[in-house]
Design a protein that fits this description.
heterodimer, A: 376 residues, alpha+beta, Glutamine Phosphoribosylpyrophosphate, subunit 1, domain 1, 10 helices, B: 551 residues, Alpha-Beta Plaits, three-stranded mixed β-sheet, 17 helices, globular, binds iron/sulfur cluster
């Protein structure tokens, strides 16, 4: 079982906090990999909010091909971040050139709508990914403003040190980290959480038993970007994207899409007729778990949900201004040791816990009662 | 010169030519005559036989052999009165003195076309090879990161949707702040939530009144008491008028086929209907006899059937192979779908049923474009029938597994796998594994399945099998009273017992499906298209069905 560690705060912090929380949950992951997504960036990226950041790993040759391609498209490098690997003392081998590079949009795209820009970023990300697919010379995790993804195989703490995050930290207000429990021996970095598409990210703990029909449903939507699926959890991110971006559903309907109520449980909902229809029409997207999913909406709202039987652990705790969403309560303790524990939230099967970008409070949407409550 | 064959028995068949040979034990037999009376074929008759009798009498007994003329049982070799192996003689014999034995080396097929009339019968394809459905195994058992579900503890929702589902982009939703509402002015096609195993179309007429009503009672009980929403298709031939106007109509799929039998009654009953039917099935083909229409032979068209169907008694009722009033199948489907939808004011799902065929995907693509098409049922070659030419039963038709899979993957390609549900039929439960066959088809992409023969066997003890046993369904002489219209025969069947068994069958199938789905971790929806749950130990099948190979 993997372990999840997400922190959202109103001030900048280092991903080492997430990694130290993963350390406390060490019994639950075998140290086979770490994935990090940082958004709402501070530090050296603080002034670069509107510039899309390309995150990935390249070989020397891959770097040349990528640079050529980006120049051809008209993207201009604005800022480059590299981990300082030469100071690293451990056993990890470098895979190549790790980077998070902010670009200026091509001139023609600067004045276009956010939608056109978003499409351009997705298209570019997928093309680069394709170009390096054969020999893994280019691995691209994300291409989005104010968002960086880092992934590498190894013990999370070791990977953190490898990237030099302890010495020259990247700072952000929203960081997701996943400590991986390897379930298939050859580890593919594309199979590592968190997953990303057009500003939506998710990470999941568990197994998605309904993976095949969900994948088939998503890939047949004709939406660019619904590819990959090296992990059965990647579909969660695409479901979020599909319901939010394509269908324009409010975020709380994520529950009604993935874990619809039984018909007899719908009576308290004022939107009963709508959710009955959604359940039928999006039937192939129903998951059965066991899953605890933590995600971030494009607008920066972080959420945690469970499968309809609540077969996985998940805990949220914190103080206004800083909340930790973790697989286990010890992870929350590591991040926010001083807090009112009576206000810790353990989302149950009908709950969707949400924390907006300002990290002021936890909102809990109860799918069955159709009610929203607030914990702060 | 007159041929010698006319003068002796050379022109007759020997018992070895026949498919079943009667074994009769003279010394157990008390000559009660029950077997000859019950035999639907008059294949056995009382005969005068010479018997060898050993006696020993007197003060110093010595065995003595005498030959004596007496009565016994003899099997006739007339091909029209061949023993069908039904075993009714054994059933009624009080002394276990008689039973039919299958004769592997029979030459039945060489002779059963006397008078130039090809062999016609009821039943199913005679094949004892293991079907593809029975070869499929459920091999994805969640063991690693996943606590598998508990069939006894977790709630399983073994339900499926019958009806056209909108495409996600077509949902008439209104976004108000943080809530979704439904625009009630937009038409949403009717969809029924049903149990994924349906009772496939078997007509009132092909079946006896006792059988049909027994099933109907069972279905009503399942819905109203057991909360298992099983629906049953009427087959072509309408249904008893009092049921048409009853609240039970909602458990029935009304079938319309090319002969339109029974539809006069139905159309006239529409204004008086208290409930809508579950759906309308337009039958274009039947897996057991593709290319043929329906056939109810004159023997079975007695008073009641004639009345329900609106025809004279004792005439052959043949439905044409195609819907004659239409120019082409595309047109037929489109027009029938629209007119049937209109007849029920667009409140009832209407869908076609076709026989399994290589061209099924063409039909499917047509339907995918037609917003009135509520589903598609594909009936494979192992389906059953009340009456057909033997050659159709044996040699025409398409196996269901690959046909269904191909259609499902085709829907996946165009993204309509949830919009147009596929139902699979033909050989489901052929060897008794109803739930397992249904589950396998669901994982290959079916939204549900139909079964017919299984119900006849399990609920009423039909004697038919894959070695041509019995199969007298077409001539009204069903020894079990299942497919007979003569009250002397069908009163042998107790409708209450049939109903009880129908309930047993579906309760057991419900429990078994849970046992199959639990270890794969699927409970809140059916595992439709969850093909990673299946494996097969034959590479060619694995490749064709796009599932994994395991041995
Ligand atoms: S098995 Fe059936 S057909 Fe054959 S003799 Fe007995 S009763 Fe007659
Ligand atoms: S028992 Fe009746 S229904 Fe079954 S095969 Fe014989 S005639 Fe047909």
């Amino acid at each position: 079982m993997c372990r999840l560690s997400a922190i959202i705060s109103d001030s900048y912090f280092s991903p080492m906090e997430n990694i130290m929380a993963l350390e406390t949950m060490k019994e639950g992951h075998d140290g086979s990999g770490l994935g990090l997504v940082l958004r709402d960036l501070g530090g050296e990226f603080q002034g670069l909010k509107e510039f899309p950041i390309l995150s990935g790993i390249c070989s020397k040759e891959g770097l040349r091909v990528m640079d050529e391609y980006m120049v051809k498209l008209g993207f201009k490098t604005k800022h480059l971040w590299n981990p300082r690997i030469k100071d690293y003392q451990g056993n990890m081998k470098t895979r190549g050139f790790y980077f998070a590079r902010a670009y200026e949009f091509p001139e023609w795209a600067e004045e276009t709508s956010p939608e056109v820009q978003s499409e351009l970023l997705t298209k570019t990300r997928l093309e680069l990914r394709d170009m390096g697919k054969e020999d893994a010379s280019i691995i691209i995790f994300s291409f989005w403003p104010d968002l960086i993804t880092l992934k590498e195989v190894g013990d999370p703490l070791d990977v953190g040190l490898f990237f030099g995050l302890d010495k020259k930290p990247l700072l952000a207000k929203n960081i997701f980290a996943q400590g991986r429990q390897n379930t298939n021996y050859a580890i593919n970095l594309y199979a590592c959480h968190p997953f990303f598409i057009e500003g939506y990210t998710t990470m999941t703990n568990g197994e998605n038993t309904a993976f095949v029909p969900i994948r088939e449903f998503l890939t047949s939507r004709g939406v660019p970007g619904y590819v990959g699926y090296r992990s059965d959890s990647e579909v969660f991110c695409h479901i979020l994207h599909y319901m939010r971006k394509e269908l324009k559903f409010p975020l709380k309907y994520y529950k009604d899409v993935t874990t619809p109520l039984f018909d007899r449980e719908m009576d308290e909902r004022s939107d009963k007729t709508a959710i009955e229809l959604i359940k039928r029409v999006l039937r192939p997207l129903t998951i059965d778990g066991p899953n605890c999913t933590i995600g971030t909406d494009r607008n920066g709202t972080v959420f945690m949900t469970q499968d309809s039987k609540k077969l996985r652990p998940g805990a949220i705790g914190g103080v206004p201004g800083k909340y930790a969403l973790m697989s286990e309560i010890c992870g929350v303790d590591a991040v926010v040791p001083v807090r009112d524990r009576s206000k810790d939230v353990f989302p149950m099967k009908y709950d969707m816990a949400m924390i907006e970008k300002d990290a002021k409070e936890i909102k809990i949407w109860n799918q069955k009662h159709g009610s929203m409550s607030t914990v702060n | 010169m007159e041929s010698k064959t006319r003068l002796d028995v050379n022109g007759q068949l020997t018992l070895k030519e026949l498919p079943y040979i009667i074994r009769w034990e003279s010394d157990k037999c008390t000559r009660c005559g029950q077997c000859t009376a019950v035999c639907p074929q008059k294949a056995i008759e009382p005969a005068v036989l010479v018997q060898r009798l050993v006696t020993s009498e007197g003060p110093m007994p010595l065995p003595q052999v005498v030959r004596q003329v007496g009565q016994g049982i003899k099997q006739v070799t007339d091909i029209e009165r061949y023993c069908v192996g039904c075993g009714m003689c054994s059933l009624v014999c009080p002394n276990d003195a008689i039973f039919p034995e299958y004769n592997e080396v029979n030459k039945f097929a060489f002779h059963k076309n006397q008078g130039g009339s090809p062999y016609k019968r009821g039943g199913r394809r005679n094949s004892t090879e293991v079907s593809t459905l029975d070869k499929l195994k459920f091999t994805r058992i969640s063991m690693l990161t996943d606590p598998a579900l508990d069939a006894g503890r977790h709630e399983f929702h073994i339900r499926t949707l019958l009806g056209r589902n909108l495409a996600p982009e077509e949902m008439p939703l209104i976004i108000k702040d943080d809530d979704l509402g439904l625009d009630e002015t937009v038409f949403i096609p009717p969809v029924r939530e049903i149990f994924p195993i349906r009772i496939g179309g078997m007509s009132f007429g092909a079946l006896s009144p006792n059988m049909w009503e027994g099933m109907a009672m069972g279905v009503a009980y399942l819905n109203e008491v057991e909360n298992i929403p099983v629906v049953m298709c009427t087959g072509e031939g309408g249904m008893p008028p009092r049921l048409l106007k009853s609240r039970f109509l909602k458990y029935f799929i009304l079938q319309i086929a090319s002969g339109y039998f029974g539809w006069d009654e139905i159309i006239h009953a529409i204004p008086h209907m208290k409930e809508d039917p579950a759906a309308i099935e337009i039958k274009y083909g039947q897996g057991a006899k593709p290319g043929d229409g329906g056939l109810l032979m004159a023997f079975k068209v007695l008073d009641l059937i004639a009345k329900v169907r609106g025809v004279p008694t004792k005439v052959d009722l043949a439905s044409p192979p195609t819907h004659q009033t239409k120019y082409s199948i595309e047109e037929a489907v489109a027009k029938m779908l629209t007119s049937m939808s209109m007849a029920f004011d667009f409140r009832v799902p209407v869908y076609p049923k076709i026989s399994g065929t290589k061209t099924a995907t063409a039909v499917l693509n047509n339907l995918a474009r037609n917003p009135f098409a509520a589903a598609l049922t594909i009936d494979g070659e192992d389906g059953g029938t009340g009456a057909a030419y033997n050659v159709s039963l044996e040699k025409t038709g398409h196996p269901i597994a690959s046909n269904l899979r191909e259609c499902y993957l085709n829907l996946v390609k165009i993204g309509k796998q949830n919009e147009l549900p596929l139902f699979a039929a033909g050989g489901v439960g052929k060897t008794g594994s109803l739930a397992a066959n249904a589950a396998a088809l669901i994982m290959l992409g079916a939204s549900g399945v139909d079964c017919g023969k299984y119900i006849m066997q399990a609920a009423a003890g039909c004697l038919g099998d894959e070695r041509n046993r019995c199969n007298l369904c077409n001539i009204g002489r069903c020894p079990k009273g299942i497919t007979a219209q003569d009250p002397r025969l069908y009163r042998r069947l107790d409708p209450d017992k049939v109903a009880e068994r129908v309930v047993d069958i579906f309760k057991a199938a419900d429990a078994e499906m849970k046992k199959i789905f639990a270890p794969m971790g699927r409970s809140t929806q059916l595992p439709i298209g969850m093909s990673d749950g299946l494996s097969v130990s034959e590479k060619a099948i694995a490749e064709q069905l796009d599932i994994s190979y395991a041995c």
